[in-house]
Each structure stands twice: as structure tokens, then as C-alpha cells.
Amino acid sequence: MRVFPFASAVRSALVIALFSALLLTGCSDGSPPNEIDTIEDVPGHIIGALYGSPSVRLADDLGVARALYTGDELMSSLRFGAVDCVIMESIAADALVARTAGVRILAEPLLGYDLCFAVAKENAELLQAVNSALSALSDNGTLSGLISKYFARGDYEYVPPENVASHPGTLILALPPDSPPYSNMDADGEFSGMDVDVTRAICDYLGVGLQIIDYDARELVTAVWFGRADLALGWLPGEGEEFVNISAPYAHAVHVVIVRK
Asked: 91 with 122, same domain?
């Protein structure tokens, strides 16, 4: 087939025009342009977050929350415009962004806070025991190992200590069942996650049993305040601190914002 120079030139011009349009309207993979350059730009947008995580509550406070079940779903939704940005804990976000093209993390964190236990005001003895256990678990590397396991894909596995004196009693822990990697239900219907392992390590150190009860994330402080649980994990700072005592931190959470490049 004979190709006329004029037709070839028109075809080339159309290709260049299409490519230029893609550059102006978004990334060459079909992503729309990014509208968020600082954390001040986040409010009012459609915000993705991992289902059941504290990030969902942050997203709901700032804009329109869209909760999805996996990090890969969140990244796909972000790249192709179903959400405008994603809020996520920083260590998990770092790992996800490292393997996802076309996205980046804003330089300024959205929120940082300590992860602590809520303990009843009248139970000063338990608060002291939990703080003592956390100090010991920090010194022996248990806490740093668990943080590495759940947020940096480390190979640490918690092993209960031997020859620990057993004492009567069981601590009741209130946890949300849908807040990975902190707490979630495994395939056998049992609680798992970092909060679970940290509390088990504390109970092993104290020589007592552990019972976990399923509680909505917004009602965790209430569970301790009304005596339904001895401890609670998974609540955000500022939620009912006037009603409960707060333990020493076992980790520090930083929430960041992921946007399109």
C-alpha cells in the first residue's frame, strides 16, 4: 500500500497532539492530574483509607472517606482517579509506594501520635504493671521486633518466655476486629495483629491470661470506662482521655498522605 506524505504527516501530528494532551491532563498511563500538593489541600477531597484502620476516621473527618480492603486496591483507585489521595500509616505507605508507579508521599506528615493502652482511672496498679512490662519488652527488643514484623516485613516471631511465674487472673482487652495490621480476625476466626501480640507479650511477662473482646473502634474507651474491659487498644489520641488513664507508648504512629505524581 502506498503511503502519501501528507497522510503520514497528518498521522504524526495526531500522535503528537494526543501525547501532548495526555501530558497536560494527567500521566501517560491515564491518571488524572494531582490536585493535592500539601496537607492543607486535603480537606474536602475524596480520601482513600484501609478498611477498619484509624485512617478511615481521619479521612471521614477531612473529606469523603472511601474505605478499601487492600493497599493495592487503594493505589489503583488513586492512580485512576476514584480517590484524590490516600491516608495511611507511614511504614506501610513507604512499602506500598515503593512498588507502585505514579504515586508519591507528601513531605509533611498528616498526624503523628503514640500508640498506648487505655486503662481504667481507678486501676492504678494495672497501669503500673503494664508500664513495667512495656519497659522490659522495649529493653529486650520485643517491641522493636513486632514493629518490624508488621510494618517493615521483618521476619521477627514472638516467642513466649520460659519459666515465668504464673498468677491467677485474666486481663480483658477490647479491640476492633477490622483494623489491620493492628488487629483483625484471621482465617480461623481468631484475633491477630500487632496489638494482639504486644498484649500477649505483656500478659506473658505478668504471668496472667488474656481474653480479647470484639469492640467497635469508636467505643473502645467506653469499654474501659464502664468496666467491660481492663485494657483497650486501637483508639485515636484525644478520644476520651479524660475518662481513662493512658499507658506509656509501645510505638509511634505517623499517618501520611499519598497522592499522584
From this structure: no
